[in-house]
Amino acid sequence: TQLLEQSPxxxxxxxxxxxxxxxxxxxVFSSLQWYRQEPGEGPVLLVTVVTGGEVKKLKRLTxxxxxxxxDSSLHITAAQTGDTGLYLCAGANAGGTSYGKLTFGQxxxxxxxx
Amino acid sequence: NAxxxxxxxxxxxxxGQSMTLQCAQDMNHNSMYWYRQDPGMGLRLIxxxxxxxxxxxxxxxxxxxxxxxxxxxxxxRLESAAPSxxxxxxxxxxxVQGQGAQPQHFGDGTRLSIL
Lengths: 114, 115
Hints:
Radius of gyration of chain B: 13 Å
Low-confidence stretches of chain A: none
Structural class of chain B: mainly beta
Number of strands of chain B: 11
Shape of chain A: globular
Order of helices and strands of chain A: EEEEEEEEEEE
Structural class of chain A: mainly beta
Strand content of chain B: over 45%
Number of strands of chain A: 11
Radius of gyration of chain A: 14 Å
Number of helices of chain B: 0
Largest sheet of chain B: 7 strands, mixed
Strand content of chain A: over 45%
Largest sheet of chain A: 6 strands, mixed
Oligomer: heterodimer
Mean pLDDT of chain A: 91
Mean pLDDT of chain B: 92
Helix content of chain B: under 10%
Helix content of chain A: under 10%
């Protein structure tokens, strides 16, 4: 069973601060996805990283996939109250027939205070 | 532009009762999934269907059954509900091409409480 450890579990910061969320595993993933979930809704995809060492930017969000494809990070610059939500990382199984199955981390609840 | 639709949105059951959670997608996706979400545990896969006519167990299948009725619909059944099955249930769908994992599109969830 592949596991993804996400940290921290909770993050409470002031508007304008920077933050980083980490997603780590001892297993190799073929790709890694980051989702954001708001209360009462399902997760929505933010980004997919595929290549080891890949960095993707989405406005103030920067996503990185580790060189060995075992870990990933999400960095938010100058957080805004609208960034508040649950952030989930999800790894796609490497090798074999995956059928698109994902392994999810436990999630990081981010609260940005005005 | 419905995407993935789940019904019902809320449900309260008594221990031992049965019910079926419905899910339908209109994106012509071949794969569909059922997850449960509990505090501090992320999303755990209950069952999935790689394509119409096939279903397989996920990480936490005990106490559940599924039916892939057609390409659009994937239902989850609790035969005899237990308090441990109190959770938020999400259905998702995706296109699967080769061995790559495509984005999963989620419904808004069914909040299920079992007393």
